[in-house]
Amino acid sequence: MRQRSLLVPTLRDVPADADIVSHQLMLRAGMIRQIAAGVYSYLPLAKRVLHKVESIVREEMDEAGAQELTMPTMHPAELWQETGRWDKMGGELMRLKDRHQRDFALGPTHEEVITSILRDSINSYKKLPVNLYQIQTKFRDERRPRFGLLRGREFIMKDAYSFHATPESLDEAYKEMYDAYSRIFTRVGLTFRPVIADSGAIGGKDTHEFMALADVGEDTIAYSDESDYAANIEMAAVNVQYEKQNVELVECTKVDTGSAKTIEEVSNALNVAKDQIIKTLLVKIDEDWTLVLLRGDHELNDIKLKHELSVTSIRFAEAHEVEEVLSAPVGNIGPVGVEGLKVIADHAVSAIINGISGANEADQHFTGVNVDRDFKVDQYADLRFIQEGDASPDGKGTIRFAQGIEVGQVFKLGTVYSEAMNATILDENGKTQPLIMGCYGVGVSRTVAAIIEQHHDENGIVWPVSVAPYDLHLLTLNSKNAEQSELSEELYTQLKQAGFDVLYDDRPERAGVKFKDSDLIGLPIRVSVGKRAAEGMVEVKIRKTGEVIEVAVADLIDTIRTEQEKLSN
């Protein structure tokens, strides 16, 4: 492709509204342009990268036995109402009406649509398993779209759905897709970790997220420094044995703590460590108020609480509700003397001896608080966020934290959707049973942004060979010089005939401008035709390493192939 004709509107300055590297570089390299908050046009360079990523995804999906199809973008509300997600998705669901005032949604995901197809198409276990996928634009009305392609309202996703007659068949498909995803993200050049995750609004139980490691990642990964254990911090179990101190119990005493409300303030006011304070939260679960207790230096993981109680949502009490239920302001509540409320505590609370808690009275706290003697706990559970330095849940090593960008996720949905939508088959005994489902997603456009987050330097993007928009960049340093122009034209033809995808910078620009644009665009190999053109010599630069090689024209193709092979390994 001749760069003179290519739409690649590069920018010299960093756009003011671009906060992260991938967003900045995609704008500066002329890859994307925003037309509304969270909505982007993909310009030719970006489109070529997307095609490369999509090709890798298709190859691995096809190899895993999945079949490609295309489903509608517009979904009738009735399908989403069958599963209850029309209401549960809330404001994130892009809704619209047709001319007949019928409700539709722009698909953020396709569980309902694919389930409706299968319930009308398959009625016997003999036709299973089947795995179907598509690559399509999705829509979610993000409250705060940001970070370019990492959190947009319109994005490209590969979603796949498998259907099974037995849990064992689903397990096999899950493993196949897990392995396929590992190959996909390896091939596109990402450093990633598969982590245990929460299924969220999708539903189901077992699930793993594939996280590309990056400082700008919106998710925190808890991983072991001595094993393969990794989990989203929301799902990381705590494997800590709490031991009670062997000290004498003291009397429970009410003390004046004045304006001290927060854990920090109470700790300072009473000169005690935060781990001696019992943090008390008032939470509404279904229609019942519940007290949730944690150690003062720990934070509640509400995802764990939801799973422990098998509920989809919980609500923390407003300040006025705390006053109404416990007759005390937030910051002064505690479990001592409370009747009629269920009390759930994190395991760490059981080991607190002579602790501190709110006294359910303004400006007052109790000291010398002990579980069982002064208050009762109805249920203990793992309710807190894991912390760096905790023992790894698998018993191997210590937990460390890293930031990650979610680029893919695999779910075992089970029968969540098939039961709700009455999608059934006859099993081998002639009995009716719901289809068993799996769901598997890759954020294609998000993957492109994640690649740039991991592959860049101060001068621009550094594309991995597998997804670069072009194989190499051919530059004529002085387009007015006849020898340089003639040799460049000859090389452009020869390189294309040799099978290389070439971006040829034939623009009448200064050499410095071309070098800067070339570094910004970040193709793996640059071939510069300059002052030694008459001698049949050109300069080859490796973008990743900065290595520069002077090469005779006769050896150029072999040199490029050798360097490509090095970069691919």
Q: How would you sum up this structure, described in words?
A:
It is a single chain. The protein has 569 residues and is of the alpha+beta class. It has three domains: 270 residues, Bira Bifunctional Protein, Domain 2 (BirA Bifunctional Protein, domain 2); 129 residues, YbaK protein; 99 residues, Anticodon-binding domain (Rossmann fold), CATH 3.40.50.800. The protein is built from 14 helices and 31 strands. The strands form eight sheets. Strands 3, 7, 8, 9, 10, 11, 12, 21 and 24 form a nine-stranded mixed β-sheet that branches. The mean pLDDT is 94. This is Proline--tRNA ligase. Its EC number is 6.1.1.15. One of its GO terms (molecular function) is proline-tRNA ligase activity. Homodimer.
Write the topology of this structure.
Elements: H1 21-28, E1 32-36, E2 39-42, H2 44-63, E3 67-68, E4 74-76, H3 77-83, H4 85-88, E5 94-97, E6 103-106, H5 111-121, E7 130-139, E8 154-164, H6 167-187, E9 192-196, E10 207-213, E11 219-224, E12 230-232, E13 253-256, H7 263-270, E14 278-285, E15 288-295, H8 302-309, E16 315-316, H9 319-326, E17 342-346, E18 355-358, E19 364-369, E20 379-381, E21 399-414, H10 416-420, E22 424-426, E23 432-434, E24 436-443, H11 444-454, E25 456-457, E26 460-461, E27 472-476, H12 482-497, E28 502-505, H13 511-521, E29 525-529, E30 537-542, E31 548-552, H14 556-568
Parallel strand pairs: 3-7, 15-17, 17-20, 27-28, 27-29
Antiparallel strand pairs: 1-2, 4-6, 5-6, 7-8, 8-24, 9-10, 10-21, 11-12, 11-21, 13-19, 14-15, 14-16, 18-19, 21-24, 22-23, 25-26, 29-30, 30-31
